[in-house]
Design goal:
By secondary structure, the chain is mostly helical. The chain has a domain of 30 residues.
Length: 61
């Protein structure tokens, strides 16, 4: 086997391996994570600190 044939065979094998890796990656689906719960506020100001239970998020503190 001459040098050119070996290079072509190596390149072909690398292409096949890359195609298999891409195909396997496309078949496996990432695990779906649930969306985080949404928090709605009636205030126009952005909340910078968590509000304690029963607290008023619009009291201006």
């Amino acid at each position: 086997m001459n040098r050119g044939t070996r290079i072509a065979a190596t390149a072909g094998a690398a292409f096949v391996v890359a195609a298999v890796v891409i195909a396997v990656g496309a078949v496996t689906e990432p695990e779906q994570r649930p969306a985080p719960p949404r928090v709605y506020s009636s205030c126009l100001a952005a909340d910078t600190e968590p509000v304690p239970a029963g607290g008023d998020p619009c009291d201006g503190r």
